[in-house]
C-alpha cells in the first residue's frame, strides 16, 4: 500500500510540474506584454516599469520559468515586495502574494465544497440505491423523475429563484454568505445552507441516476447471483457484495467533482457572493490580474491532483488488485 501511494505521489508531482509549465507559458510567454496584463486596470507608467523589471521579462522564457520554480521552493523578491516560499507569484493589483490570497479564500471554498459533497453523497447515492432496489416500482419512478428535474437545473437560475422565494419572500432561510466557523458556527452553517442546497440539487440528480445504473449492473453479475443462490439475505447481497462492486465508478465521479469544488465552485460562489477561490478567479479576470489568474489555475489543478491521489487510495482499499497496477 505504501509503495502504491509513493508511486501515485511521484506521478502527481510530475503532473503538477507539467501543468505549471503549460500554465506559465499560457499566461506569461504567449501574451505580447505580460507585464501590462499583470499590472491590472489601475496601471501607471511607474508601476508598469517596476513590474517589467521585477518579472524579468527581458530574460528568455525558460529562465523566467526557472525563476518561478525557484520562487516556489525558496521564495522570491519583487523589488521592495517580498514573496516567501512557497511563492506562486505576486499580485500587483492588491499588493499581496498570490498564495496568501488563495489561503485566505480557501476556507470559504472548502465550506461550500465539503458541505455540498455531504448532501450529494447522502441524497444522491441514497436515492440511487433505493431506485435500484425498487426497480420498476413507484419509488424508482419518483426518484428518477426528481433526478431528471434536478439534472435540468442550472445553478445561476436555481440559486436566484430559491434565494428569492426562501430568503427574500418567505424568510425561511438566512441570507447566504460566509462567516468563519470559529466566529459563529451557527452563522457559518446558516450562511452556507443555501449554497449547499443549490450546488447539491444540481449534482444529486447525476449521482442518483449513476448509482442506480451501477447498482443494477452489479446486481446482474455472476458472483452476486451466486451468493444469492447460496441463500444470503437480500440485505447482505445488496450491501456487502453488490454495493462494493458498484462503488468504484461512483468514487471516480465523486473524486472529480470534489476536486472541481475545491478548485472553486465559480458559478455558486459568484451567485451567492461567497469569497472563495472561484469568486477570486472571476474577479482576477475582471481586474486583469495575471498572477492571480495563474494562481487560481494552479490551485484548482493541485486540488484535482490531490483528490485523485485520495481516490486511488480508496481504490486500493476497495479492490486490492489495484495496488499491483
Describe this structure in words.
With 325 residues, the protein is mainly alpha-helical. The chain has 2 domains: 2-98, no CATH class; 106-319, MetI-like fold (Orthogonal Bundle), CATH 1.10.3720.10. It has helices at 2-29, 34-39, 45-55, 61-74, 98-133, 138-151, 155-169, 185-219, 222-229, 234-262, 266-271, 277-286, 290-318, and strands at 76-78, 81-83, 90-91, 96-97. Strands 1-2 form a two-stranded antiparallel ribbon. A two-stranded antiparallel ribbon has the order 3-4. It is globular and about 80 Å long.
At the fourth CATH level, what is the homologous superfamily of the largest domain? MetI-like
Structural class: mainly alpha
- Overall number of structural domains: 2
Extended strand count: 4
Unreliable sequence segments: none
Strand order of the largest sheet: 1-2
Put the structure in a nutshell.
With 325 residues, the protein is mainly α. It is 74% helix and 3% strand. A two-stranded antiparallel sheet has the order 1-2.
What topology does this entry show?
Elements: H1 2-29, H2 34-39, H3 45-55, H4 61-74, E1 76-78, E2 81-83, E3 90-91, E4 96-97, H5 98-133, H6 138-151, H7 155-169, H8 185-219, H9 222-229, H10 234-262, H11 266-271, H12 277-286, H13 290-318
Helix pairs in contact: 1-13, 5-6, 5-8, 5-10, 6-8, 7-8, 8-10, 9-10, 10-13, 12-13
Keywords:
2 domains; 325 residues; MetI-like fold; 4 strands; 3% strand; two-stranded antiparallel sheet; mainly alpha; globular
